[in-house]
Amino acid sequence: MMSDPPSRPRGDRNTSWFVLQRSLAIVRRLLRGPATKQELLEAVRLVVGPEAYSASETAATHALKNDRAALAAHLGIQVAFDRSLGCYRLASLGETPWLDLDDNALAAIATIHAAFASGGPEAERVRAFLDQIRALLPPERLTRTRRPAVSILLRDLDEQPVAPRVLDTVQRAIAERRRLGFRYSASTPAEREPRYHEVEPHEIVFRDGHYYLECFALYSRGEPRGEITHNQYRRLRLQGIVDDDMLRVLPERLPPGRPRRRSYPVRYRLAAPAVHHGVSRHFTDMQVEKLADGAALVAGTTYDPWGAARTLLHYGDSCTVLGGDEVLREMRKLVTAMAKNYGLLAFEDP
Known about the structure:
The chain is α+β, with helices and mostly antiparallel strands. It has helices at residues 16-31, 37-48, 57-75, 103-116, 123-135, 164-176, 305-313, 325-341; strands spanning 78-82, 87-92, 178-184, 195-207, 210-221, 228-237, 248-253, 264-270, 284-290, 296-302, 319-323.
């Protein structure tokens, strides 16, 4: 049976191998961002071992200084002390590339970079991350990170950005799995005045160019309808959440899992031109029946009749909704309102 290797003697902290280990640990920590002296020492001890630096602060500081000098002398890596921050930072990684990737990985970077070049969800963070990766690559490989094979459109269509405090509060409630309270300004005529809502927040979704909060709505209150119990899933535009004193993460924790979502049937007929290249998978549990004239009957389920009707509206006159009741009712409301807007027919409200 093999015995454990002997512990490292205290006297060999300055061997070339030990200095190299410490130096690489310093670079690894500073790639994450600036760090204080204490944070650097702790990071190195975590990677290399508690014996990496002496317990004496004076000796540890001297060793850290020597490690910085070794990085500069042998690898051209400059670790500078930023007095304004009181932290060490990577001033230069030298001329030696620290990372290389195969062509498929570089093509993926190019695709992501192009998708977020002009905006999109979390665009600043994504671009900063890609810049970090590209800074580690060999110069001759960088050109491959600028040639996307496919363009993905992730445009942010909102006229006004989400208020930073709204985004931070919602993200914190989701991360901590706590209830969220806020006033919400809805777009419906019946709710022009913001109502107070309490919800169980689950995720932020970027969809069709807009930011939504997917949540389980508990209740809302406000004029003119007083308090209303919802107990249903809702998708709320983040821009509708009012940035005021009522916006807060509440102490109540979310229960394990998620409440069961109600599903709704949806059935529709697609004309032949709409299925020439296949039937898009908009809904769950979809079943498709091809007809002799090239058309198709489609059945599936949705959690959102309101959204399902607007999705099917994209087909124009190539789609006829046949059911279920909730989706058909929503589509009839949409078509009736559009016909009235264009003065085509004097419909009665469905």
